[in-house]
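Render this sequence as a predicted structure.
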Amino acid sequence: MKPRNRRFVALAVGLVTLGAATALVLNAFNSNLVFFFSPTQVMANEAPRERAFRVGGLVEQGSVVREPQGLTIRFMVTDTAKSIPVTYTGLLPDLFQEGKGVVAQGKLGADGVFRAEQVLAKHDENYMAPEAADALAKARAGQSSLVMPEGAKP
């Protein structure tokens, strides 16, 4: 085989190997990609039903129900416009409380209940996940334009 042909074969093998490695990395990235949705977006069927995503907002007051046997808990997550029921089995973060910010990761069931695999609570009074804060601000802006008198500040 001529040196020119050997270089061509080596280059072709290198490009095929690089392409395969890139495809594997992109596939792994895509399977681990988790999007954030607000309860309003979930109720509008904008969230995927077949893959995991995050939903965030506030834990609705009076909605937390713990099952007497086991570690299952049910609660509602709201963005002040819409609410979505969430069920979670496991230990909750210490800062999980009604009326406080929460982000849950899991899948939406066919019955409309979000089955969380992980629940995250905010770590202090000033922090909320940026996506959750934006969703709450948009929901409040939509409500406030209907309720707020002219000239009033939110």
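Summary. Confidence is low (pLDDT under 50) at residues 144-154. Residues 3-32 form the longest helix (30 residues).
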